[in-house]
UniProtKB/TrEMBL annotation:
This is ATP-binding cassette domain-containing protein. GO terms for molecular function: ATP binding. Residues 2-255 form the ABC transporter domain. The lineage of its organism: Bacteria, Bacillati, Bacillota, Bacilli, Lactobacillales. Keywords: ATP-binding, Nucleotide-binding, Transport. The keyword Oxidoreductase does not apply. Pfam families: ABC_tran.
Length: 327
């Protein structure tokens, strides 16, 4: 559904010296500096996949999505969506995709929500009967009944985002690009949005490419992630494989009604003693397995409770950015 082959994009930025003299010089003899935003990115997404596209601020995520959707032309490389080049086939491609950029609205600020939905349906040539059927389904999934007759300006952020999601699904796109879709939302609205994405993916095989700084979005929705740093690919693969690749140290906590003294002392194991009855072990996965650690603790102590802590994706991504690891 999405094919990007070796795409690159560089911006030309005017370098200005400070002060009035610098402004005059930049006006008459501008000195430009090339800023590479995306460098040789290749990405292939199959029908029905939900892919997390991750990167720090300024890493090139939004530029990539703009090239994929036809808003920008790549300097090099080529893009196709469902077999069509988005830059040359804007109308045909737009009928197959939905795009939500953060808090940028598809809805008219002054119109009631329902009228914005009607306008959206007319733009995409959605027949009235189909529009009514889809709207009834979207109202139930996103709980929109109390909002349809209100002007968009009167809605809270959470209400407006739910309406934005409904708007981009009026024409039932095959591919949806979401750029920071849950930014600023409270936990309950985030879960509503995530459930809606899962439903559309399962029921309609909708393909999603999601960028988000909220790692819970990525972990709860995406089996595959694509990490970009400074415009270049860092990783493309499953979330499970990423955790295995970068999980060099794992953590298990033990509790007991009896003192666990002396604490376990082995090479490759760091012991964190909260008190005599609660101990946390950080162990190197190259030297130990979880089974070996648990077996050793049960052999030496009267363990009542075991808690295993998975390395979260946010920690892994932070480690990748700090250490500059590349695929």
């Amino acid at each position: 559904m999405i094919e990007a082959n070796h795409i690159s994009k560089t911006y030309q930025v005017v370098v200005k010296e400070p002060g009035l003299k610098g402004s005059i010089k930049a006006f008459f003899k501008p000195q430009k500096k090339a800023i590479p935003a995306v460098q040789d990115i290749s990405l292939s997404v199959s029908k029905g996949e939900i892919v997390g596209y991750i990167g720090s601020n300024g890493s090139g995520k939004s530029t990539t999505i703009k090239m994929l959707t036809g808003v920008l032309y790549p300097d090099y490389g080529a893009v196709t969506l469902n077999g069509l080049a988005p830059q040359e086939n804007r109308k045909a491609v737009n009928k197959q995709i939905g795009v939500l950029f953060g808090q940028k609205s598809h809805l008219d600020w002054n119109l009631p929500v329902y009228e914005s939905f009607v306008l959206h349906a007319k733009i995409y040539d959605v027949p009235d009967a189909v529009f009514n059927e889809r709207l009834n389904r979207l109202k139930k999934l996103l709980d929109l009944d109390d909002m349809l007759n209100q002007p968009v300006r009167n809605l809270s952020l959470g209400q407006r985002v739910r309406c934005e999601f409904a708007a981009i699904f009026i024409h039932q796109p095959a591919i949806v690009f979401l750029d920071e879709p849950t930014i600023g939302l409270d936990a309950s609205v985030k879960e509503t949005i995530r459930s809606f994405i899962r439903y559309m993916n399962q029921q309609h095989q909708t393909t999603f490419l999601i960028t988000s700084h909220d790692m819970q979005d990525i972990e709860s929705l995406c089996e595959r992630i694509f990490i970009i740093d400074k415009g270049r690919k860092v990783y493309d693969g499953s979330l499970t494989q990423l955790k295995e690749r970068f999980s060099q140290v794992k953590t298990i906590s033990f509790s007991s009604e009896h003192p666990m003294l002396p604490p376990l002392d082995r090479p490759g194991i760091e012991v964190d003693v909260k008190d005599d009855y609660h101990i946390t072990l950080h162990y190197e996965t190259a030297l130990w397995t979880s089974a070996q650690i648990i077996e050793q603790m049960f052999r030496d102590y009267r363990i009542e409770e075991v808690t295993m802590k998975e390395l979260d994706i946010e920690t892994i991504v932070k480690q990748i950015y700090e250490e500059g690891l590349h695929a």
